[in-house]
Amino acid sequence: MRHEICKVKDLPVGSNKIVALEGRSVGVFNVNGEFYALKNSCPHQSAPLCVGRVTGMTLPSAPGEYLYGKEGEVVRCPWHGWEFDILTGKSIYDPHKCLVKTYEVAVETVEEEKSVETYTVKVEEEKVIVYI
């Protein structure tokens, strides 16, 4: 089922929004201009995952070298610090066994109709009648 969340300009890069969709709490994230959605529930103990800190992480590198990357692509659970990749929903620690449900997100151009409220008008025996 399709749900309109907001206008693109209302969710700038680096921000997120939590919405209720069909009885589910879902976090929608803007990561570098791309949009992603995760279930707002940590698989560890059902904490509200999407209110956690969004950050990056250290990347594999040579001994004594520290590379930092994936800025804005990792969400950390506010209760116990479990980290998940926003782009895939996979756990940073155990990506093959632990993950968060992801949802498809699309950006659509929607033509907004400009409407004017109108009423039905009839002429009955020389009287004008408006139906509201």
From TrEMBL:
<keyword id="KW-0411">Iron-sulfur</keyword>
<keyword id="KW-0408">Iron</keyword>
<dbReference type="Pfam" id="PF00355">
    <property type="entry name" value="Rieske"/>
</dbReference>
<keyword id="KW-0001">2Fe-2S</keyword>
<dbReference type="GO" id="GO:0004497">
    <property type="term" value="F:monooxygenase activity"/>
</dbReference>
<dbReference type="GO" id="GO:0046872">
    <property type="term" value="F:metal ion binding"/>
</dbReference>
<dbReference type="InterPro" id="IPR017941">
    <property type="entry name" value="Rieske_2Fe-2S"/>
</dbReference>
<dbReference type="InterPro" id="IPR036922">
    <property type="entry name" value="Rieske_2Fe-2S_sf"/>
</dbReference>
<keyword id="KW-0479">Metal-binding</keyword>
<protein>
    <submittedName>
        <fullName>Rieske (2Fe-2S) protein</fullName>
    </submittedName>
</protein>
<dbReference type="GO" id="GO:0016705">
    <property type="term" value="F:oxidoreductase activity, acting on paired donors, with incorporation or reduction of molecular oxygen"/>
</dbReference>
<dbReference type="GO" id="GO:0051537">
    <property type="term" value="F:2 iron, 2 sulfur cluster binding"/>
</dbReference>
<feature type="domain" description="Rieske">
    <location>
        <begin position="3"/>
        <end position="108"/>
    </location>
</feature>
